[in-house]
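Here is the promised in-class demo. Please do not try to memorize the tokens; focus on the logic of going from shape to residues.
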């Protein structure tokens, strides 16, 4: 028996002997919870019953290449290679070119030549997953999951929120989902400030809009920051300033009633703050034209002291890069701003357990049962460890009953950073499985990253609109309305901020939104939310 599978079998045996279930098989972990104690006992090894069939079966699978920078295909990926050994099923992967996923998906659907499995964000399908089933592109998985996916079924029985999110309004399952069930994995983006500058100025991390404004003025006047608050246009849409005034740049709900943020009075108040910052030289004047690389250059050149960014590609990369360049350089996550001290922010940037991405079985698959059992492996105990941690002894070890990445992952001998290793050596960011919190936490190289997430988590979390599935007719109408409205709102927001349109005309702008049928769009979202809540 090959070395990799022997090691995998050893860890599975230990899990079975402890009798403790992993979060991937139904237990919702908190920060203090951990995977089971997997210390080896002296008992006899048992081979897990993972082999699906003795027949030689190959399934075709369309989806993104997990490590396009290092592997030509997922067929070379160590996780899928181990999975083939365990299940006996061979997979022929079909990868769209990076950046062309949507275009290639549409061409594939139009050709009516479908693989057995398709991994996609199905909420983006024109008309939604219901239409994908009606179009005979994919099949309903309700009976399939019930009969052939015991591991996924067990997980969903323990997580009502996830169960609701991966269904259509008529309670049809449509894919084997990629799930992130730990809050640490769902929060990865937020406000960041130069903590070393604040320390020099003897200032605290800002909590309110007024404190932010005071800080930015100090950065400009006392730290010679040319761009005190740096941004790109997309980040203006985040729940930063607007959230302080109780609205978002999109649809949200208040006491069960759907609202559209850009037409609410609080949105005008948020625009007034951005306009004032723009006029006073506190908001980067280039925000509408620059990209992330330009913004990052301003941070590393000490031209800015506050911005929005991710914990890994933003904060983590900056702290590592600047360590040698400026030993005093220090970042900290700041709370989502509020209007009053001690108030809890109404909004923050947080993902849902399910974001619409998963592997569906197509109508042209001739081995539905086999495909379902193969996909269900990712939610089993051994599949959970394999997807999240890889190969025991190579990519992870067990310490105090917890999987911990080895130096092969954290300090790779070839100089590959751990974030890329997550794609190359394990499959923590895609595929049909439940993502472990370690994918986020163990990628962190600086304590400030986890501290930032814990800070950003402190906001209310009941006004967001969950992943909805409008009917095909509703979806088509909603897309028609919102395509036009999104363009108009985007143009007007820039004009308001830059002073090209006075805020006195906000009422006229709202009237124009009504003429563009925004209220019909709200009604569609309201109906879809009602059906979601009734699932």
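The designed amino acids, position by position:
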């Amino acid at each position: 028996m090959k070395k990799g599978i022997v090691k995998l079998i050893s860890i599975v045996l230990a899990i079975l002997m402890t009798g403790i279930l992993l979060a991937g098989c139904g237990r919702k972990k908190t920060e203090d919870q951990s995977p089971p104690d997997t210390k080896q006992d002296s008992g006899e090894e048992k081979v897990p019953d993972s082999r699906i069939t003795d027949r030689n079966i190959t399934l075709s699978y369309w989806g993104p290449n997990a490590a396009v920078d290092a592997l030509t295909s997922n067929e070379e990926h160590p996780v899928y290679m181990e999975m083939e050994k365990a299940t006996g099923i061979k997979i022929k992967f079909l990868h769209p070119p990076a950046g062309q996923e949507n275009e290639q998906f549409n061409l594939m659907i139009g050709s009516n030549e479908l693989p057995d499995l398709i991994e996609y964000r199905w909420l983006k399908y024109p008309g939604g997953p219901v239409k994908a089933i009606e179009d005979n592109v994919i099949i309903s998985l309700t009976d399939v999951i019930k009969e052939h996916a015991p591991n996924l079924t067990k997980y969903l029985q323990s997580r009502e929120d996830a169960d609701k999110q991966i269904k259509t309004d008529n309670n049809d399952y449509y894919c084997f989902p990629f799930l992130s069930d730990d809050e640490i994995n769902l929060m990865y983006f937020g406000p960041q400030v130069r903590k070393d500058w604040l320390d020099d100025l003897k200032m605290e991390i800002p909590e309110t809009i007024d404190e932010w404004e005071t800080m930015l003025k100090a950065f400009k006047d006392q730290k010679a920051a040319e761009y005190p608050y740096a941004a790109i246009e997309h980040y203006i849409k985040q729940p930063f300033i607007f959230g302080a005034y109780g609205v978002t740049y999109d649809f949200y709900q208040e006491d069960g009633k759907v609202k559209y943020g850009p037409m609410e009075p609080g949105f005008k108040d948020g625009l007034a703050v951005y306009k004032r910052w723009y006029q006073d030289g506190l908001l980067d004047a280039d925000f509408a034209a620059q990209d992330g690389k330009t913004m990052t250059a301003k941070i590393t050149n000490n031209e800015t002291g506050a911005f929005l960014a991710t914990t890994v590609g933003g904060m983590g990369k900056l702290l590592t890069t600047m360590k040698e360049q400026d030993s005093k350089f220090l970042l900290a996550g700041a709370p989502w701003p509020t209007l009053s001290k001690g108030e809890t922010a109404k909004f923050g940037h947080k993902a849902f357990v399910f974001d619409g991405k998963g592997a569906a079985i197509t109508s042209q698959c001739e081995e539905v049962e086999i495909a379902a059992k193969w996909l269900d492996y990712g939610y089993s105990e051994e599949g959970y460890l394999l997807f999240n941690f890889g190969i025991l002894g190579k990519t992870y070890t067990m310490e105090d009953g917890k999987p911990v990445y080895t130096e092969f992952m954290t300090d790779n001998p070839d100089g590959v950073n751990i974030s890329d290793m997550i794609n190359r050596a394990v499959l923590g960011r895609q595929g049909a499985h439940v993502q472990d919190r370690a994918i986020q936490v163990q990628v962190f190289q600086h304590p400030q990253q986890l501290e930032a997430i814990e800070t950003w988590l402190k906001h209310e979390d009941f006004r967001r609109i969950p992943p909805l599935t409008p009917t095909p007719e509703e979806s088509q109408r909603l897309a028609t309305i919102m395509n036009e409205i999104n363009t108009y709102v985007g143009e007007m927001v820039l004009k308001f901020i830059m002073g090209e349109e006075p805020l006195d005309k906000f009422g006229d702008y709202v009237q124009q939104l009504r003429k563009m049928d925004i209220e019909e769009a709200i009604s569609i979202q309201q109906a879809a939310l009602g059906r979601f809540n009734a699932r």
